[in-house]
């Protein structure tokens, strides 16, 4: 199996399986037997329920975890807004504050920022919807160079799907610890508290925050019961806790894209045991089993979907997370890169490493991005077209050393002021460099010489 060869050690333990019901205890006997909320929980712990869905959601959709902790999560001072205007302006998906434009957009690599920590290194690039209505999504970049201190952060707005591009994240969550590196992804559900430290220095990457529903594995249909991302390859943390008698912490909350903070006199990371199916998890993209054409034509990119968040309409998604890993191309008589197309879905692409085979001109680089919004025409640049049109069609391995990905959504997304102007990374000549050089090859057989 082509598992990524990481050099950074992973000191933490994990449970395997996606959407599985897990139970874990850091001290033997900390999980109650037969009851979720006994009159007295073991070891003097408090029972607390973390719900990711309504209590009355259908059984197959219900997301919940029971935790057994030293002090309940409610024990903190009142939240107060932190620099509310500037943070909200930077993060908002309010329609009237976003730029909804049909132009194809591409960004140069985003900068590292060694001056800020995780909480203050988040920037919205594009988004749609309203977290107060649990509708839509936000697409963010993160860049940080400082550890969080005695602090914790959670988003009340949605689930964070984190895609590292540079550097290692040591994520201490309430439910256990996760090491996250480039070529891995992590999902931290709405409401779960965590802190991020940086064992190898500055970090940078991408986030798709899902305001609506939760991420799940896509249906496989005619593919069958295996391939793409297999459930057994996902990892969830095991229980781990800090035992601190008195210790002041600062708790940050992202609430309607506004940052609040509260003080508390105990650690947020005091869960001794938990059981349920609502928890953070990570996945190694090197374990993705690619399925492609073995006859002719370029198949639909849905075959590269790792995780999806379905909308209320069958067959469309609030967000799909799609990757383009190393793979073999063997299709006969076929233009092998993606076809030119106009899509009712918005497509935001990022590049973790290497080169993307449909963009050979050098403008799409690791830590950069592109956005082709609803019905914005796009496809291979002129160099990729000429090369693929004239290449010898033999079995070919593409993408060695490369990993591109896409956040795809049925929503028309608006671009933030930061993403369009403040970051100063938009390539003004993207369209002209990519598609203006395309040549006319048409020969009209009915046209007289």
UniProtKB/TrEMBL annotation:
Residue ranges annotated for the Homogentisate 1,2-dioxygenase C-terminal domain, each copy included? 287-442
- Which residues hold Fe cation? 341, 347, 378
One GO cellular component, as annotated: cytoplasm
Some GO term, biological process aspect, for this entry: which one?
Answer: L-phenylalanine catabolic process
Entry cofactors: Fe cation
> One of this protein's Pfam families, by short name?
HgmA_N
The entry sums up its family as follows: Belongs to the homogentisate dioxygenase family.
UniProt protein name:
homogentisate 1,2-dioxygenase
What organism is listed for this UniProt entry?
Penicillium desertorum
